[in-house]
Amino acid sequence: MANKIQAVKGTREFYPEQMALRNFIYEKVRKASQAFGYQEWEAPFIETIDLYAAKSGEELVKKQSFTFEDRGGDFVTLRPELTPSLARMIAAKQGELTFPVRWWSFGPFWRYEQPQKGRTREFFQWNVDMLGVNSPEADAELIAVGAAFLRSVGLSPERALIYVNNRRLMDSEFDALGIVPEKRLEVSNLVDRRTKMEPAKWDSYAFDLGLNQSQLDGLKDILGNFDLWKKSEELTRLFATLEALGVKEYVKFDPNIMRGLLYYTGTVFEAFDTSGSLKRAIFGGGRYDNLLADVGGQPLSGVGFAMGDVVIGIILQEAGLVPEFMPTPAPVLVTLFDESLWMKSFELAAELRTAGLNVIAYPEPAKLQKQFKFADKMKIKLALVIGPDEAEKGLAVIKNLGTGEQVQVKREALVNSIQEALKNA
RNA sequence: GAGCCUGUAGCUCAACGGCAGAGCGCUACACUGUGGCUGUAGAUGUUGUGGGUUCGAAACCCAUCAGGCUCCCCA
Which one, of A184, A206, A176, A192, lies nearest residue A258 by Cα? Predict the structure, then answer.
């Protein structure tokens, strides 16, 4: 172990079992996206640092992203998020795209952070966005895509919920408390931190920000008022739409949801596991109105969300919702009796593959016992044996490894027999 | 960027200053044309890495790497 070169800190190694989980998530994400007509797309994995510096602030980019100088002396970064790339690509073809644009993507991202449970430096992220429609009904569609995903992986509303709030509603509530617009960001951070801090500390933090006692009391009233959404036309329409879309049971109004991002302007939402060990968000998103203008496009409103693969992967495993891992995609093993019948077995395997079956041929002579043990570990359903007897008579043995039964069949009938046996296996 | 915890066989862990162990897994045999179950036997190792203290270190100290928890951050 001493001289082994280790994987880079925070990177992911996908052994087949983990790869199966990643692909499972990918499949569900693809289905949820496509059910609503979203198109799959992808952006570069490497971008110039300027793309992020413009929006996120240089400090953040330098501290929390993988940034390096390329051979030409340009500073590039492994993408820490997708939205700026999306904004640029949309802006570049703004004149020729058919709006509303509905796009989804699932790819790798990197952030230079301290790895913890649910957080790695390399991760995959599902992004879903709709651009060109600015309405609570469109916001509801995005939430419905997320809810469709949760439902499809077996996370019921008892286990996972999407909490919704609205920035404009909160801003007007802040205004009513006499909190000036310049303080909104700080107060948002304060709200964000409420569940993480002790009440007394939170209070003194609020005073540090310059809030007075009546403003603090008012803020607490707001944050405890789960009927506040009724004052917002946007949220009223949003919830009506969620009901029509059949996902209302997954969504709850929560005035404590703010999201750190500067660019959200209206609806914001975050999904959480309500009973697992992780307190991290499953996915989160919202409406952004100014993103395209920031990269030189015409003003265009959008709504979207993102989900990392790490947190949802842990939740699915803890909830026992990951399908049983199949070690091999081949349900059939052609055993190899001895050296003299080696090529006979390989010919048979090739024949079965031509018929469309996934087949493993044991690669070298070995005791049948060993070959069957291998088949068992790989959870192979059928083992085929061609020994001297079968070879001579033009037969093959099919053994069903689930039931232990085995039959001799003619070579001509083999493909059909296997297909029959696989239906029941 | 800060604090705390952890690192021993392939895996999960024990030994906590005095011979490095167990369970599972692995290999062989029972069963030379057949897996799972059972029984018997066997092999595991630079105790993460580098240094120090000590007659003696897996254990104590320092450094370092990796993982976890918390703070920070969370685009």
Answer: A192
- Whether the beta carbon of A186 falls within 7 A of nucleic chain B: the reply is no
The answer to whether the C-beta of A201 is closer than 7 A to strand B is: no
A188-224, pLDDT tens digit by residue? 888 888 877 778 888 888 888 889 999 999 999 999 9
Q: Nearest nucleotide (C1') to the CA of residue A310? A: B74
Return the exposure string of A196-227: e unless at least 16 CB atoms fall within 10 Å of the residue's CB, then b. eeeeeebeebbeeeebeeebbebbeebbeeee
Checking each nucleotide's C1' against the CA of A7, the nearest proves to be B66
pLDDT given at position A263: 78
Lowest mean pLDDT among A106-115, A268-277, A342-351: A268-277
Closest CA to A309 of A137, A138, A127: A127
Residue A1 confidence (pLDDT) = 33
| B49 closest protein residue (CA to C1') | A2
**Strand A160-166 with A251-253, pairing:** parallel
In chain A, pLDDT over 90 holds for what percent of residues? 65
Pick the closest to residue A403 from A420, A423, A382, A385 (CA basis): A382
**Domains of chain A, with CATH numbers?**
16-43+79-318 (3.30.930.10), 332-424 (3.40.50.800)
